[in-house]
Amino acid sequence: MISALDILTSGVLRYPLIIAILIGLTAPVVGTFLVQKRLSLLGDGLGHVALTGVAVGWLVGAWTSAGPADLLAIPGALVASVIGALAIEYVREIGHTSRDVALAILFYGGIAGGVVIIQLAGGTSQNLMGYLFGSLSTVTAPDVVIAVVLAVVVLGIGLGLSGLLAAVTSDEEFARASGLPVRAVNILIAVMAALTVTLSMRIVGALMVSALMIVPVAAAQTLVEGFTRTMRTAMAIAVFCSLGGLVITVYVDLPPGGVIVLLSIGVYALGLITKAVLPERRAERERRPDAAPGTGTRPLPSAAG
């Protein structure tokens, strides 16, 4: 039986655990702003574009014979996802294509580009599976260094400028009328999403990273109110689900990304049930004939017993 100490000291799991914590902290920060902007599917689009970046990284690595074939995969995903984020904002702000059509183009173009380019690099579509669904065995020390740098950038921007970002995402028209830099903020949020996608690909996978941005935020909204409390609660939920998903995959041979996302959905379902049940119980207590008026609680007994 593998103990908790074995998990913490395992050379195979040490790096994934670090990245899982970073994902849990960063993904909901970006997701909170995306939910406010009603751009919940942006992470999906960027995840697909990042696959093209992975394939381009393989291709460049093959041309230059630079170490392992996937040495430049994550840097390639970073560049591609940032370019995709800038492109979607350009289309949304200036182009004549609607937002959902632009996201669809990112979806299909990203997958198609990844599959074609990976073949040109001498690989197969199977080489993309670890990036699609997440894998523990492929995480390396350079991946951790990249993840730490990206997490510091995302958390620094997301938490340090949370007031400005929240103002723009809550009411973009009012923010523009107030003289706030709306376009710059929109670009900043899109780039933050791109960085988070790159950070999360190794563990959660490109197809599921958007879920970890959005589902913990939705779960937090069933439990608390207010922008800041929602973000903090979502971060706690995401860290719990990320670590819990990794621990489960230690004992059961399952893809970590799928387990993490299912745990997040389970927390969301639990939050919905709690939100539905508690008001009914409160209303039931208030309807009791022995309840004190307006308090919803039983009256205190008198001194006489």
From TrEMBL:
Pfam families: ABC-3. The chain crosses the membrane at residues 12-34, 46-66, 72-91, 103-124, 144-168, 180-197, 203-224, 233-252, 258-278. Gene3D superfamilies: ABC transporter involved in vitamin B12 uptake, BtuC. It is a multi-pass membrane protein. SUPFAM superfamilies: ABC transporter involved in vitamin B12 uptake, BtuC. It comes from the Bacteria. Keywords: Membrane, Transmembrane, Transmembrane helix, Transport. Residues 283-305 are annotated as: Disordered. It is found in: Cell membrane; Membrane. Its main location: membrane. Belongs to the ABC-3 integral membrane protein family. This is Metal ABC transporter permease. It comes from Candidatus Brachybacterium merdavium.
